[in-house]
Amino acid sequence: MKKVICLFLSSLLLIALISCGQAEEEVFDVDFNGEAVATGFDGLEIKFLSSFYSGNNNVESDNILGYPVGTGLSDLVSERIKEVETNYDCNINLEYKTWSDFSSAFSSGIAGGVTPCELAFVTSFDIYSWAKAGYLAGINNELGDYIDYTNSSKWGEATLLECVFYKDDLYGLLPAAWPDLIYSSFGYPLVANMDLISTSGGDDPRELYEQGIWNWATFNEQLEKCTVVEGTETRVYGLTAHSPYFSEMILGSNGIALARIDGKVSLRCGFFESQLLAAADEVRHVIYGPLAYTFDKISEPDPNVVTAKFCAEEACYSFMPTKFVFGVWGDVAQSVDNYAILRTPVGPDVPADHAFGIYDGMTYTLTFPTSTINHNIEAAAIVADAIFEPLTGYETIEDVKAYMTHNNFFDDRDAEAFYDILDNAAYNHFYSAGGAVRNISAEIGRSDTPVSELLERYESEVNGFFENAVGDMLQAYAVLYPDLETVE
Questions:
Q1: Contact at 8 Å (CB) between 372 and 137?
Q2: Which of 205, 210, 287, 398 has a CA that sits 20 to 30 A from residue 171's CA?
């Protein structure tokens, strides 16, 4: 009997030893509320590469996911990364590269079968071409079990995500729940030097908007009032601006953009709508017509020179990217004591409260290289979803807006204008369809060629844009956001 019992116990021991020798399968249980519910990644290293394009002459600084090292926000991000490492038993290897070192190496690495990272936090300019080449994982089709892209407060509104659309998916996400980042990625709001306007003889543009008369006619009057000429020298211009920026914003202020008509996503080019004619006349009225003396043509070709002139108080108004205003590369916030952010004055074909913005890409975009699919794509997605939860102290959009208002604006009305512009921003497809998408709007500001001739000259080219890159991106709306109203 004792022998039988010994044999039985020996059998149980053998079974136990065999069971212990088998690897346990890792279990993932995703919770979109950001709770750490994975069983852990056993110390897995996740390489997180970031690189951003500033667009101006400022030197790129050491940063932690877009926030300069040593700031309160970078400290919060550092704490978040440590929390995620602890909660998921992983090691997040965060590495920053300058844009010049990163952009070509990223695609060539993937093409050559080399995995650059599990996560990339980059400027979106090349995402269309990377997605087209198969270098990136689709957020919906491949990562949909781990990331809910429809959570717009966390990952961005559809219109801002448009720059990462391709065919039936999106290939990037935006840190929409965090302060500053998406808010310094678009253009081209009208910026005003309020003290200079006052000393030059202009009126308060905020009050003109509140009176419901912030339109082209009123703006033209202000440009004249604000231009200071002493003898043969113009000491202060009413407006300094890169003319393509100026043209795009004036066109938009009358209801049209490349792929937008009256605020709706357009499957046909907006430049061929009737509203273009009045907008073209306004642009040329300022640059070449009776108001030419109020416009700084010398600086016009270079946005960096335009910004420098504005910061040197040589002009009262300017259109520029928001990242030139504040944030890591914000020249205006560092140089101008009292500036305002304004909606573009409206044209005759839109309501008085119409707002419009343009963006050619998003500076801070999260994306996943396809090579990750072969190793740890689930871990990368879960970790990213946890990292980009709202930061401590900024749990709601109201918290983020309060921070932005306190740190970046001199007046609550500027904050309201800023968010209005952002909420109505449209992608101009510059870095997907190519720079030629700007030919019509740019030539309106740089030549006196009749508009009808410009439209005829570029009609075939524009149709090509919509048949190819623009069409490739816009078709994603039907899959990703089928309820969003579009113009056929």
A1: yes
A2: 398
Residues 18-42 have pLDDT tens digits of: 444 443 444 444 443 444 444 589 9
Between 116 and 212, name the one with better pLDDT: 212
Residues whose CB falls within 8 Å of the CB of residue 258, separated by 6 or more in sequence, listed in order:
269, 270, 271, 426, 428, 429, 437, 465, 470
Q: Tell me the C-alpha distance between 119 and 337, whole Å.
A: 39
- What average pLDDT score do residues 329-358 get? 93
Residue 166: the pLDDT is 97
The span from the CA of 137 to the CA of 125, in Å, is 16
Cis peptide before 403 (omega within 30 of 0): no
Helix (H) or strand (E) holding 229: strand 228-230
- The DSSP bridge pattern shows strands 315-319 and 339-342 to be unpaired
Decide: 70 and 339 in contact? Cβ < 8 Å: no
Contact (CB, 8 A) for 381 and 373:
no
Spatial contact of 452 and 146, defined as CB atoms under 8 Å apart? no
Cα distances (angstroms) measured from residue 329 to each of 101, 163, 193, 207: 19, 22, 18, 29
Residue 241: other Cβ atoms inside 10 A? 29
Question: Position 457: which residue type?
Answer: R
Distance separating alpha carbons of residues 147 and 390, to the nearest angstrom: 15
Question: In the numeric block, which tokens belong to residue 137?
Answer: 């994982």
210 burial (CB, 10 Å; 0-12 / 13-18 / 19+) is: exposed
State the burial class of residue 228 (Cβ atoms within 10 Å of its Cβ: 0-12, 13-18, 19+): middle
CA separation for the pair 137, 139 (Å, rounded): 6
355 in Cβ contact with 260 (< 8 Å): no
Give the alpha-carbon dihedral of 469, 116, 370, 428, to 10 degrees.
-20
8-state DSSP, 25: P
Q: What is the largest CA-CA distance in the chain?
A: 120
Considering only 59-73, 241-255, 291-305, which range has the smallest mean pLDDT?
Answer: 59-73
Report how far apart the first and last C-alpha atoms of the chain are (Å, whole number): 87
Q: Which of 249, 202, 193 is nearest to 224 (CA)?
A: 202
Q: Residue 47 and residue 53: Cα distance in Å, rounded?
A: 20
Q: The pTM is what?
A: 0.86
Residues 366-383: what's their mean pLDDT?
82
Give the span between the Cα atoms of 385 and 121, in whole angstroms: 13
pLDDT one-digit tens code per residue, 418-477: 999 999 999 999 999 999 999 999 999 999 999 999 999 999 999 999 999 999 999 999
In this predicted structure, what is the pLDDT of residue 374? 53
Dihedral of the alpha carbons of 79, 82, 83, 86, in degrees to the nearest 10? -160
195 Cβ contact list (under 8 Å, min separation 6): 337, 338
Q: What share of the chain is helix, strand, coil (3-state, %, to 5)?
A: 45, 15, 40
